[in-house]
Amino acid sequence: MSNPFAGGGAGRPTPGTPNLPTPPTGWPIGSYGTYEEAQRAVDHLADSDFPVQEVTIVGVDLMLVERVTGRLTWGRVLGGGAASGAWFGLFVGLIMGMFSPQGASWFGPVLAGLGAGIVFGLVFAAVGYASTRGRRDFSSASQLVAGRYDVLAQPKHAEQGRDLLARLAMRPPTAEQ
């Protein structure tokens, strides 16, 4: 999977290109309402031996969508802090146990790591939640979405790309797409 935030337009930097955000280049050969439809179009181009390394999918009319997943309470905050601290403490305890002297029990370092992880997880979660002073008493998940997705191709291949995507649009979608 490529990184959509890397430079170079195709998800990977090209030699000599700085890793800075750059506007996409190319001519529009298709426009789609969902990212899945744009992916399907590029997949069709690839299946048709089109030079897809010269294709870019561009999200237009970007929106940040934050979906609220629940209300935060002290119980949920402390429970989450204790759980994440326990996982980290268990990991550290297992590492310490692996390097304990020969013949010594690995059980002690694991318990010590687990206990310390829970305590630190509780403290950090409590401090973080208290610092918000009730201004954000909910949990959420954020997602960047676009109003539409344009597929661009370099000018020398744009006409061929439009023709291929026009044929795709005339086909009824199959069950596997």
Automatic annotation (TrEMBL):
Q: What residue stretches are annotated with the General stress protein 17M-like domain?
A: 29-102
Q: Where is the composition biased (Pro residues)?
A: 15-26
Residue segments, region Disordered: 1-28
Highest taxon, organism lineage: Bacteria
According to the record, the segments passing through the membrane are 77-100, 106-130
Keyword S-adenosyl-L-methionine carried by entry: no
A Pfam family: YflT
Say yes or no: keyword Ribonucleoprotein present: no
Q: Which UniProt keywords apply?
A: Membrane, Transmembrane, Transmembrane helix
Q: Where is the composition biased (Gly residues)?
A: 1-11
What is the protein named? Answer: General stress protein
Organism of origin: Saccharopolyspora griseoalba
